[in-house]
Amino acid sequence: TYQQLIKVTRLYMLELIGSTALSAFRKQRLLKKINQLVPQVSDISAEYIHFIEAEKSLSDNELETLKRILT
Prior knowledge:
single chain; alpha+beta; two-stranded antiparallel ribbon; 2 helices
């Protein structure tokens, strides 16, 4: 008989919200372009989102380290 061993790994997905992705200048410039097409838009925002795949649940210390590095 042939047996195939399959490694089953539980993965954890984390999502961390990062800093703003637009400088004030870029935000203003982009809003101006958008307003040419859609005048009703009064504000825009963009932020980085970091997705982390981990093989285990992270400790509070590990999570704080990640937050410090990525945000």
